[in-house]
Structure to design on (104 residues):
């Protein structure tokens, strides 16, 4: 995975916004030799948030936290099935369950 500097991202996004009537995302990405999906993602993020996202949003959880979540889930499974568990998204719960050693 390539890591691009915030300066380069900003340059590409602003160039696109200034020239969007004259240049496509594909053309711009070819110019910089960067995947057009990535350039499009930078542009959409900028348009939605008004700033260049410099790092992906990665959540890091300690092993103890993961084990506690799995234990809670296993001891309260009947209650969790009846109503949505709004503390953590389901996809995160899946990751936590898979990554806890000896827990399935």
């Amino acid at each position: 995975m390539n890591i691009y500097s915030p300066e380069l991202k900003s340059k590409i996004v602003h160039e696109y916004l200034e020239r969007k009537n004259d240049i496509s995302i594909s053309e711009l990405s070819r110019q910089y030799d960067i995947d057009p999906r990535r350039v499009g993602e930078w542009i959409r993020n900028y348009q939605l948030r008004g700033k260049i996202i410099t790092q992906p949003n990665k959540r890091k959880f300690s092993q103890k936290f993961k084990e506690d979540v799995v234990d809670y889930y296993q001891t309260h499974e009947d209650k969790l099935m009846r109503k949505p568990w709004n503390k953590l998204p389901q996809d995160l719960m899946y990751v936590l369950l898979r990554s806890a050693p000896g827990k399935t």
Notes: The chain has two domains: 6-49, 63-99. The chain has six helices and no strands.
